[in-house]
Amino acid sequence: MIYPTRFGLTYVGFVVLVFLLGTNYQNNIILLFSYLLASLFISVMLHSFYNFSQLRFYSRAKQQGYADATLYYVIKITAKKTHYDINAHFSDARLNSPIVNLGQCKQGTQELILAYKPSKRGQYKLGRVTVFSEYSLGLFKSKAMLDFGHYAIIYPKAKSFIAGQYQLSGQVDEPNRESYQTTNSVGSDDFSELKSFVRGESKARTAWKQLAKGQGHYSKHYQASQGQLTWLKLSDMPSNDLEIQLAYLSFLIGELTTAKQSFGLALCPDMTNTAMNIPPNSGFHHQQACLTALALY
Amino acid sequence: MMLFNKKKKLVSQNTSGNVNGKTMSNFYLSRQNSWLLCLCQCLNIAVVALELSTWMLIIIALSLAWQALLLQQNRATANTSRGKHPGTVQSNLASKRHSHGPSKQLATNISPVVLGIFALLGCVAIALTAKQVGILLSMVHLLCFSYALKGFELRTRRDFYQLLLLGLFILASALIFRQDLVFSLIILSLLIINLTVLLQFFSSENAFATNLKVVVVLLGQSALLAVVLFLVFPRLSPFWQVPFAKSAKTGLSDTVKPGDIANLTRSTKLAFRADFGGQKIPNYAQLYWRAMVLENYDGRQWRRQNKVTQNKADGSGTKSLIFDASNTEVLPLTYQVFVEASFQKYLFALAPAVVTGNASGITAQTDYTIQSSTIISQAKSYRLTSYLTAPLALELSPQSRQINLSYPQGSNPRLEQLALQLQHNYVDVQARAQAVLTLINQQNYSYTLQPPLLVNNSLDQFFFDSQAGFCVHYASAFTFLMRASGIPARLVTGYLGGEYNGVTNEVNSAGKIVNKGHLSIYQYDAHAWSEIWVAGKGWLRIDPTGAVDPQRVNIGWSNQLLQEQAELNNTFFNLYRMKNIAWLNTLRLQFDALDYQWTRWVIGFTSQQQYDLLKHWFGKMVPWKLALIIAVTLVLSMLMLMLLLHWLNRPKVKKQAFAQWQIIYHKAIDRLAKQGMEKPLAMTVNDFAKKIRQQYPELALVFTQLSASYNRLCYQTLSISEQEKQTVTMQQQYHHFIQVLKNSDKKHL
User: Fold this and answer.
1) In a domain, B682, yes or no
2) Which of A145, B454, B633, B705 could form a disulfide with A128 if both were Cys (CB 3.0 to 4.6 A apart)?
3) A2, A20, A36, A39: which to substitute to probe chain B, counting the most B Cβ within 10 Å?
4) What pTM was computed for the model?
5) Which stretches does the entry tag as region Disordered (chain B) (predicted)?
6) Contact state of A43 with B203 under an 8 Å Cβ cutoff
C-alpha cells in the first residue's frame, strides 16, 4: 500500500501554488519549475514503491519472558539490493510500540528488533506488524501490515521469597514426598549399575565381589544425588493474593532451576489433574513449561 | 553508527498521541545535514539577495550566523560529553543522553517569546517599507524573513518540511525577477541541493555525493514528464492581478542629456536579440534599431513628446500616420525580436515596421516606434515586418512641424547664429544638413566616451569649445542646428548594429545564402541619431556620428573606442579581452546561442506557439482533441517512466565470472561433444573421464590428466600461486589433448 503522507499532500498544494504563481506572472520558467516538481511527485512515488518492494521478512512468532521485562521480536529482513528507511512497529495502537528505524537495509539479511514490554502475566496476541518506509523524500508512505502471528507469553514477575519459609512448608509436605518416593523407588545414592573399570577410577568403587569371582574388573556406579524432591504448590504460597502466589512460584522455579534441583509444579490441589500439574523434572525446558503454566493460569 | 550520526533529539509539543504523531516527536537531524540545511538557507536567500533591502539582508545574515553558532555550540557540548564517556558511546542509550545536553541548550538560547517579538518587529518593519518597495518585493522580504527565522524552531519533522518548502518557494519566486539560462541553471542546482537535504534525512548513512546523485537521477526521470507537461498542458491566462516588480529600469531612458548614452555603453548586458530566420541580414549601417523619438528640447535635455497631445490626433488620424504596408513596393523583411526585461515600455524596430503575427499588447506609434502596453518585466518576443528603404511620413501635420521646429530661444546663441548663417548660405534643405556634417567631419572633432563635462549641458560649449563628445552630443547639436535653421528635426535613440552569432554563408538547396543565427544587441550598442523632415522624402535619418567616426556606423566600435571603454569598465575589459582570445570568444558565442534558444523556446513559449505546435503535430485543434492529447501524452509518459524504472530496478543477475581453468575444461568438453561424446549434466568429472578411458583408449591418458587438474582446481584449497601454476599445466594438457584428438581424427579418416 502506498499513499501520500501529509507532507506529500502539502507538497501537492505547494506545487499548485507555484503553478498559480507561474500562471499569474505568465512566467514559463516558474511553470516549468512547477511541472518539474509535479513530475518529481510521480517519480518519487515510483521510487518509494521500488524501495519497498522485493523485501522479505521473517520473524519468530513466540517470545516469552517475565512481566515488566522487555521482550524483543527480531524481524529478519532479506534484501536483494540496498533499501532505505525501513521502519516497523506493532500495528496495534494500544501496544504503544515505538517505531524502530533501519536507516539502510543493505543487500543480505539484517535485523529489526521490536520491543514489547508487558506489565501483566498471561498470553498476548500482538497482532500484525506495520512496516513502512517514507523514502525517498517523505512524500509517500509505503506501508505493509505483516502478520507473523506474534504472541507473547508473560510469566509472573518473580517475587523474592525467603528460602527458609519454603523449607518449612516443604517439611509439612513430607507425606506427599514419601509417597512419591515409594512409587518411584529411587532414593539418593542408590546403587544403579556396574560398568567395566576404567583406569583412574577410584579403587574404592571396585566391585570386589565380581573381581574375586573372576568375572572381570568392574566398578560400582551410583545414581547421583537428586537433592530434595520438591513439589511446588500454589496452595502453599503464603499469600491470599493469587498474583503474589504466582510471583513467588515464579521466583522459586527460577531458583530451583539455577540450583539444578528437580521439582514439580502443582497448580491444582488435586494431584491427579495432569493437565494442571507438571511432574518433577529439571532443566531449561522444564522451567519454561512451568513458567508458561504460571503465565496461563 | 550512532557515533557519527550524532542526533539531536528535540522534544515536541505534539501530543496527538497516535503513532504518526510519535514519529513527529522523534525528530533527528544529523550534524552534517544541519550544516547542509544552514548552507542551503544561505544559498536560497542569496538568489534573491539582489532584490532585498540592505537592512533585511543584515537581519537575515545575523539570524543565519546565529543558527550556525548554535550548531557549533551543539557540537562543542556533544564533543565534551562524548569525551567523558568514551566507553559507552556505542550504546544507543549513551548517545541519546549525550544529545540531550545540546538540545536543552538550544531551547534555552532562543525562547519562543523572543522569537515571536523579533518576528513581529520584522513584520512591522516590512509593512512600513511596503510602500517604498512595492507589494511584490515586500512579499519577498516577508518570505525570506520567515525562512530565516524558521530555522530557529526546528523542533518537529513538520518544521523541517515547512522550512524546505519555504526554501523551494523562494527559489520559485526568484524566477520572477530573472529567467535567463544561467539563472535558471543556478535555480535548478539549488533545487537539487534542497532536495538532497531532504533525502539526506531519509538516508543519512549515505554520503552526500551519493544522495546528490540519487536526486539528479530522480529529477532526470521527472524531466520527461515535465517537458511533456510544458508542451501540452494548456497555458492559462492569469487568474488575478498580481503586483509586478518595480525593478530599476535598464536601457535607454525617455529623457536624454548629452553624455547619457556614454554611461549606458559601459554595460555589457544584453538588450535584445533579433532573428531574421534565414534571410540576409541587412548591413550594419542599416541596423538602426529605433526605440524612442525625442521631440521636446528644453535647452538642456531631450524629452519625449507628451502623450496627451499626441492622443488628440487619435482615431482615424493616427491610423493614417502609422505606416501602411499595403501600398509600398519595398521588399519586406520579416524578423522576430526577443527583448530582455527592461522594466520599460518601449520596444525595438527597424523603421518603418508593422507588427505581424500576434500583436496583442504591442502598439505601433505615429513616430514609427513600437511600444508595449505593459512594462516589460520578463523576456518577450514579437514579430515585425520592416520596409527598410520606404519613406517615413510624407506628410507632416502642422502641429508636429511646430513641435519639431521649436527650441528655447537663446539657449545656445552661438549655434543659433551658425544656423542662421547656414540657412542663408544653403537654400536646399539636404545641402544644409550635409554642410553641417562636412563641418563636423573636417574640423577637429573627436568621438570619445569621456567627453569633458559641459556647463549646464550647453551645446554651444560642446560644438565650439570642447569639440569632443559621444553620439548624443553630435545628434543633439545637429538637431538643434537643423531646428534653428528652420528644418523640422528630432532626436531618435535606440541601438545601432548588433553582434551576429551563427554560421554565415551557408548555402541552401536553392542556392541562396542562408543565415542560421541571430543578432545580439547589447547595451553598449546604444546610440542616438537625428531625423530631419524633407518635403517629398519624409523623415530622413541622418547620423552625425558617421561624420566624426565612420567606423562606428559601418562596422561597429573602433579599437580606440574599445580600449577607452575597457579602461573605464572592468566587465567591459573582460569582454574585450575575451573577444581577443579565439576559443574563449567561440565559447562565449556558443553560450549566447544556447541562451538564445532558451529565451526563444522556453521563456518565449507562448500559448500561441503551443497551439501552433499542437496543430502542426495533430492537425486542427478542437477542445475535445486537446483534452485527449493531454490525457494520452500524460498517460504515455507516465507509462514510459514506469517502464524505465521497472527496467532499472529489475533484479540484477550477476554474471559469474568463470575462471580460466573452467573455460578450458568446458572447451575440452565441447570438443568431445562435437565428436559425439556428450557429457550428461549429472555425470561427475571422474565418471566421465572413466567413460572416455573405456571408449577411447587413445584419449585416456590426456583426458584423465585434464580431468584431474580440473578436480584439483575445483575442490582443493590452493594458494593463488599454486592455482596459477596448475592452470598453466592444465593449459598445456589441453593443447596436448587437442593434438591427440586431431591425430585420432586423422586415423579414423
Assistant:
1) yes
2) A145
3) A39
4) 0.75
5) 79-104
6) no
- The model's pLDDT over B642-666, given as tens digits with 9 standing for 90+, comes to 888 888 777 655 555 677 778 888 8
| B275 belongs to the catalytic site | no
The number of beta carbons lying within 10 Å of the beta carbon of residue A86 is: 25
Nearest to B641 among A36, A43, A53 (CB): A43
Residue where a domain terminates, one of B624, B650, B676: B650
Nearest residue in chain B measured CA to CA from A93: B19
Same domain, B338 and B479: yes
**B100 with B145, same domain?**
yes
Residues in chain B predicted with pLDDT less than 50, given as ranges, are 1-25, 82-108, 308-320
B471, B432: one domain: yes
Nearest-CA residue of chain A relative to B206?
Answer: A104
In terms of CA atoms, which chain A residue is nearest residue B646?
A50
Our CA-based measurement puts residue A64 at a distance from the nearest CA of chain B, in whole angstroms, of 24
Which residues of chain A have a CB within 8 Å of the CB of B642?
46
Give residues 663 to 702 of B whose Cβ lies within 8 Å of A: none
Catalytic residue among B38, B367, B471, B518: B471
Domain check: are B466 and B446 in the same one?
Answer: yes
CB contact under 8 A, B179 and A50: no
* Nearest CB to A89 within list B19, B214, B244: B19
pLDDT digits (tens, 9 = 90+) for B448-457: 888 888 887 7
Tally of domains in chain B: 4
Does ipTM exceed 0.85?
A: no
Active site residue B40: no
Q: What is the pLDDT of residues B527-559, one digit of tens each?
A: 999 999 998 888 999 999 988 888 888 887 777
Closest CB from A47, A89, A137 relative to B198: A137
Selected catalytic residue, list B367, B527, B549, B592? B527
Query: Is B100 assigned a catalytic role?
Result: no
Residue B6 located in a structural domain: no
Domain that holds residue B421: 255-567
Sorted by where each starts, the structural domains of chain A and their CATH numbers stand as 1-155 (2.60.40.3770), 158-177+224-297 (no CATH)
Of B650, B669, B703, the residue that ends a domain is B650
- Residue B705 counted as domain residue: yes
Cell numbers describing residue B696: 577411447
B275 and B366 both lie in a single domain: yes
| B chain contacts of residue A136, beta-carbon cutoff 8 Å | 199, 202-203, 214, 218
Residues B664 and B640 in one domain: no
**Residue of chain B minimizing CA distance to A135:** B202
